[in-house]
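Q: I'm writing up a methods section and want to include an example of the input and output format. Could you take the sequence below and give the corresponding predicted structure tokens, formatted cleanly so I can copy it straight into the document?
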Amino acid sequence: MLTWVIYDITSNKIRNNVIRKCKNVGLYRVQKSVFLGDLEDNKFDELVLELDSMINTEKDSVYVFPMSKSELNKAGLLGQAFDKELVTDEIISKFF
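A: Here is the clean output for your methods example:
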């Protein structure tokens, strides 16, 4: 399933660990605090559990959203929807 990870994390160390984990499971960074990718159900569940154990739940926020391909295609992307420095056309073509 397509998976969005959106976060607001105060600690650089924790944020870097979350970034590394998202990349390691195959997600692509599409904005500075946003990752998108296609995960199997078990990887989705594993990611949620691991991210929960990494963050400071008193200070940090992490949202992990599943989304179907058809729902993504209906999404409105306004302005500079993807950070051009982070996202290549090849990555965008994987999802749209």
